[in-house]
UniProtKB/TrEMBL annotation, chain A:
Alphabetized GO MF terms: oxidoreductase activity, acting on the aldehyde or oxo group of donors, iron-sulfur protein as acceptor; thiamine pyrophosphate binding
Domain Thiamine pyrophosphate enzyme TPP-binding per the UniProt entry, residue ranges: 56-203
This protein's name: 2-oxoglutarate synthase
GO BP annotations listed: cellular respiration; organic acid metabolic process; sulfur compound biosynthetic process
PANTHER family for the chain: 2-OXOGLUTARATE OXIDOREDUCTASE SUBUNIT KORB-RELATED, 2-OXOGLUTARATE SYNTHASE SUBUNIT KORB
Pfam families, alphabetized: TPP_enzyme_C
InterPro entries listed in its UniProt record: 2-oxoacid:Fd_oxidoreductase, THDP-binding, TPP_enzyme_TPP-bd
Protein keywords: Oxidoreductase
From TrEMBL, chain B:
Source taxon at top rank: Archaea
Gene Ontology molecular-function annotations: 2-oxoglutarate synthase activity
Protein name: 2-oxoglutarate synthase subunit KorA
Gene3D superfamilies linked: 3.40.50.920, 3.40.50.970
Keyword terms: Oxidoreductase
Start and end residues of each Pyruvate:ferredoxin oxidoreductase core domain: 282-376
Top EC group: oxidoreductase
Complex formation: Heterotetramer of the KorA, KorB, KorC and KorD subunits.
């Protein structure tokens, strides 16, 4: 793949008057954003037909920095807003930029139901195991033992595997990478953007300032090295025993299927309604 | 345009059904809801009608999602509505505030039932007046309408959409279980008999760049619909005229919030409607809203027969509130009675309006039954 310069991507897609971003040094959100913009650029998608939607948190500030229509909503509810937008105007292509707390905690119910409906949306999910914006509280994705300001002695609850959850709930496309895996990341986003129905690309993303320094990884390189240690590619994971996978995170493509999306289902439903009422043959 | 119900003639229908039909005629093409008594029939009617008029009706996972979905639909260009009852309305308050802050035209129907909490699901109440006005957090304003008959439920639903579009604001239609489930004769007009107001769209790039500005000087910015190339950023954070977050700038916050409140307050004369009966020479005024007004009208008639110069002020708009009009009325009458189906919510507003110029007495009733006319009469004649 030929990669355009980051400068060109920035010039074309960012709102210059909103810069600089609010992101801390070493944050991975910028990388995930860049991959998303590169995917849009590579696919030659129409900038005016894409709407970015987000909830609350660091990653949710992304729609403000990109030069597209954008809806920065309430905490956890981005996908519920997206449901209204997509059904009211199916021509819009919707990208939801979310954090792990936003998607899996306060927004957990909206998340599973958007997937169940197969809402036509591409979710770019930033997973950093923490609530970065509010100061490093523990997130529902945090692996056991990881520390946060609300779990100062190490997380004692079981974590959500968001990708696993999305596959079970019925998403058409699910992939997970660390921001380290940039080519896979860009390719996955491209795939996700071309599919109908619910598509999800999750990124393990460094948060040295809120998360790392509470877990003995004060810099992004340390976090990236940690990702290398704890991530296991799907093919390899299949050959590993459950006890070997304890504390590891599997990366790769978990689902790639073509169930009809919500928009197509509703169009068919409208036809059925008119037929049943004798309005149409 | 073909309608899935008869137009241009009267029909004998429930309040909930009337609201659904009015919404369709007002141009509503997106409905999101979650079932709740006594509002479910609105949803059921919308579910039946919407696919036939190429609109959308969707059952969301909860009320928070319903409220979110209609805001999203509105930014995508649709007129959108949801309906609920007290407990669900509480869940909507978060995103109702978001709609206020982002100036999104939407209609929210709250069919009141006995509360607090799950209370009396099948019985009427007027306990959500304060929730409708002040339920969301922060300084804000919106519009709250209140029908007292099934016909008014129909008419005020159309008005709710018009006001939402005109002022780019959420409008709450505050009705109750009694009106929702009561059947009455309603005239369903033909579309050409209805006057509809559509939201202002940006006329040029200049206006589109200021989705939260005030280019017309009326406090209502044109709304750049998503997908039309304006690249608008909408946030619930305090934002400047361009939509850029400015969360620690006191001046920006004050300018934004004062304009949002101002566009409602400065247009009270256009927004507020009321009906008065026998008020011209009245010494006793009854002020009521919604279903209780039906008993109050009858009470006025009985009182007049008994030689008491009583009159009724029936409020069709609960917010914004015309405090000045109440004070003026208080100067003319000896006493004001406020019958309502709660322990004193409208009463607070009336007493503030009366400003000590007349004695204000609450006639409270809770438990699910509407005041009988005699209950009001007996309180007045002592």
């Amino acid at each position: 793949m030929y990669l355009k310069s980051a400068y060109d991507i920035r010039e074309k897609y960012l709102r210059k008057d909103m810069l600089p971003t609010i992101f801390c040094p070493g944050c991975g959100i910028g990388s995930a954003l860049q991959y998303t913009l590169r995917a849009i650029d590579d696919l030659g998608l129409n900038q005016d037909e894409i709407v970015w939607v987000s909830g609350i948190g660091c990653s949710s500030r992304v729609p403000g920095f990109v030069n597209f229509d954008g809806l920065h909503t309430t905490h956890g509810r981005a996908l519920a807003f997206a449901t209204g937008m997509k059904l009211a105007n199916p021509n819009l292509k919707i990208i939801a930029f979310m954090g792990d707390g936003d998607a899996a905690a306060i927004g957990g119910n909206h998340f599973i139901h958007a997937i169940r409906r197969n809402l036509d949306v591409t979710v770019i999910l930033i997973n950093n195991f923490t609530y970065g914006m509010t100061g490093g509280q523990v997130a529902p994705t945090a692996l056991k033992g990881l520390k946060g300001t609300t779990a100062p002695y190490g997380q004692f609850e079981n974590p959500f595997d968001i990708a696993d959850l999305a596959v079970s709930a019925g998403a058409n496309y699910v992939a997970r990478w660390s921001v380290f895996n940039y080519l896979q990341g860009i390719n996955s986003i491209k795939k996700a953007l071309q599919k109908e129905g619910f598509t999800l690309v999750e990124f393990l993303s460094p948060c040295p300032v809120s998360f790392g320094r509470r877990n003995r990884m004060k810099t992004a390189p340390e976090l990236l090295r940690w990702y290398q240690k704890i991530t296991v590619p799907l093919a390899k994971a299949k050959k590993m025993k459950p006890e070997e996978l304890e504390g590891k995170i599997v990366i790769g493509e978990f689902a790639d299927r073509d169930r009809p999306g919500l928009v197509r289902e509703y169009e068919a439903y409208k036809k059925r309604a008119k037929k049943m009422m004798g309005w149409e043959e | 345009m073909r309608y899935p119900f008869p137009v241009g003639r009267s029909d004998f229908i429930q309040g909930d059904e009337a609201i659904a039909r009015a919404a369709i005629l007002a141009g509503c093409r997106f409905y999101a809801g979650y079932p709740i008594t006594p509002a479910s029939e609105i949803f059921e009617a919308m579910a039946l009608y919407m696919p036939l008029v190429d609109g959308v009706s969707i059952q969301m996972e909860d009320e928070l999602a319903s409220m979110a979905a209609i805001i999203g639909a509105s930014w995508a260009g649709a007129k959108a509505m949801t309906a609920t009852s007290g407990p669900g309305f509480s869940l909507m308050q978060e995103n109702l505030g978001y709609a206020v802050m982002t100036e999104t035209p939407v209609v929210v129907v709250d069919v009141q039932r006995g509360g607090p909490s799950t209370g009396q699901p099948t019985l009427a109440a007027q306990g959500d007046i304060m929730q409708a006005i002040w339920g969301t957090h922060g300084d804000h304003s919106l519009i709250v309408l209140s029908p007292s008959t099934v016909q008014e439920a129909f008419d005020l639903t159309i008005r709710a959409f018009n006001l939402a579009e005109k002022y780019r604001t959420p409008v709450v239609l505050l009705t109750d279980a009694e009106i929702a489930h009561m059947r009455e004769r309603v005239y369903i007009p033909r579309p050409e008999e209805i006057e509809l107001i559509e939201r202002k769209l940006p006329r040029n790039e200049e206006e589109a760049r200021l989705p939260f500005g005030d280019p017309h000087g009326d406090g209502v910015p044109p709304m750049p619909i998503f997908g039309r190339g304006y690249r608008t950023y909408v946030t619930g954070l305090t934002h400047d005229e361009y939509g850029h977050p400015k969360t620690v700038d006191a001046e920006v916050h004050e300018r934004l919030i004062r304009r949002i409140i101002g566009k409602i307050e400065n247009n009270k004369a256009d927004i507020i409607t009321y009906d008065s009966y026998e008020l011209d020479d009245a010494e006793i005024a009854i002020i009521s809203t919604g279903i209780v007004s039906r008993s109050a009208i009858r009470a006025v008639k009985i009182l007049r027969e008994r030689g008491v110069k009583a009159g009724l002020l029936k409020l069709n708009t609960i917010w914004p509130f015309d405090f000045d009009m109440i004070e003026e009325l208080a100067e003319r009458v000896r006493k004001i009675y406020v019958p309502e189906m709660n322990l004193g919510q409208l009463y607070h507003l009336v007493r503030e309006g009366a400003n000590g110029k007349a004695e204000v007495e609450l006639i409270a009733k809770i438990g699910g039954e509407v005041h009988t006319p005699m209950e009001i009469v007996e309180r007045v004649v002592g």
